[in-house]
TrEMBL record:
It is found in: Membrane. The chain crosses the membrane at residues 42-61. This is Metalloprotease. Keywords: Hydrolase, Membrane, Metalloprotease, Protease, Transmembrane, Transmembrane helix. Pfam families: Zn_peptidase.
């Protein structure tokens, strides 16, 4: 892909890499802290305080700093900001595929090096910020042409694990989109896995990953995600998987639409880029993943589509450059 130092980087990046707390908010670190009442009406018992103190020590936290209002590095997590557990958001599991979304329906950091981050990862951060900026350019134009306003998603980079409105996000889950907070989450180590484990190298393969997740954001803004979720709650698991496949293939198609329009707008594509994207789509097909993991294929358990299907729908979107080509839900065949 063609990028240079003059290309815009998105400001919608929340870089949590290397944070021990995985993105949790702590008192004294810019967010509201936890009030721990001691004594008096509504106060905690000594036993309760001892239990909390023990938990704090497990996190390497000085309980006295919390009790005395100190601003040390890393106090007790702000549980007042935990996700609403009544929303019934499905949670991801490590066994699922790399591009799964954990449910259906920030801070904007200035450019700076992440302390302790390898140079290669800082270069990757720049690349991702530029790809995300390109998705903003394209989808802002598309929505504007339809008389609507595009709400730009935030992209969270994290290491190991981080908190999301859809539950705890973990590196083993691969990149994912959470519709409840409208953010894309990714541990940059996934791109090494994409190249080594899935045999899908190349910068456009990485851009395809991001464009696919942003495609889920577009689906959320259009109300498609919410409709799919409601439908899945009324049908069998097998039928729910089939509907989920339609959802994922549509996101692949939207990634193709983006690639087409982005090249028209920003002249990004180079020889071999689309082939890299198609190879990535092939390598992460449900059939390929199941063959690697268990040696055989169970089509009824597909949740993202076969290699052939993923390549087909990305290609449809790319060739047409139009969203109307991405109606997987009413297609005669997938």
């Amino acid at each position: 892909m063609r990028y240079d130092e003059n290309d815009r980087e998105s400001k919608n990046i929340d870089d949590r890499r290397g944070q021990r707390d995985g993105g949790f908010r702590f008192p004294g670190s810019g967010g509201p802290g936890v009030r721990i009442p001691v004594g008096g009406k509504g106060g905690m018992s000594l036993t309760t305080l001892l239990i909390i103190g023990a938990i704090m020590l497990l996190f390497g936290i000085n309980p006295l700093e919390v009790l005395l209002g100190g601003g040390g590095q890393g106090n007790f997590p702000d549980i007042t900001r935990m996700p609403d557990q009544t929303q019934q958001a499905p949670r991801r599991t490590a066994e699922r595929n790399p591009f799964e979304i954990p449910g259906l329906p920030g801070s904007r950091e200035t450019k700076q090096e992440t302390p302790g981050a390898p140079k290669a990862q800082d270069e990757m951060r720049t690349f991702i910020a530029r790809v995300l900026a390109d998705t903003e350019d394209v989808w802002n134009d598309v929505f504007k042409s339809a008389g609507r306003q595009y709400q730009e998603p935030q992209l969270v980079m994290f290491t190991g694990a981080t908190r999301t409105a859809c539950g705890t996000g973990q590196s083993a889950m691969g990149p994912f989109y959470c519709p409840l907070d409208q953010k894309v989450y990714i541990d940059l180590g996934f791109f090494n896995e994409l190249e080594r484990r899935f045999n899908a190298p190349g910068d456009f393969a990485q851009a395809y990953v991001i464009a696919h997740e942003v495609g889920h954001h577009v689906q959320t803004l259009l109300g498609i995600s919410e409709q799919v979720q409601r439908t899945k709650q009324r049908v069998s698991r097998t039928e729910g998987n089939r509907i989920q496949v339609m959802m994922e293939l549509q996101a692949d198609c939207l990634a193709g639409v983006w690639a087409n329009l982005n090249h028209q707008l920003n002249n990004r594509l180079e020889d071999g880029d689309i082939e890299e994207g198609l190879n990535a789509a092939k390598q992460i097909g449900d059939d390929m993943i199941q063959k690697r993991q268990q040696g055989y294929v169970v089509p009824d358990s597909f949740t993202h589509g076969s290699s052939a299907q993923r390549k087909e729908w990305f290609t449809r979107g790319f060739k047409s450059g139009e969203m109307k080509s991405c109606d997987t839900f009413n297609a005669d065949s997938l």
